[in-house]
Design brief:
By secondary structure, this protein is α+β, with helices and mostly antiparallel strands. It is built from three helices and five strands. Strands 1-5-4-3-2 form a five-stranded mixed β-sheet, sandwiched between helices.
Length: 94
Amino acid sequence: MVRYRWDREKERVNLAKHDVNFQEAQAALEDPGHITRLDVDHSDVEDRFLTVGVGFRARLIAVVTAEPPQGSIRIISARRATKRERNAYETGSF
């Protein structure tokens, strides 16, 4: 079973800015059709990943995560997918 964690204050700010909470982000990460790639532009300190999947509100969501040594997946941010990300999801690859 995958464990997810996040900072509650970061989630509050993310919800206000992008109208996406991290529970919906978690649902997008668990979407069987999700696609994921290494976010090389933002992986200086730790490996970060960009995942695009459908959340529980039936919206296509882009989620940034990190996998720290503790073994859980840390949700960093979430927003609606861009047109490019939607196209990648539809074709099955970034």
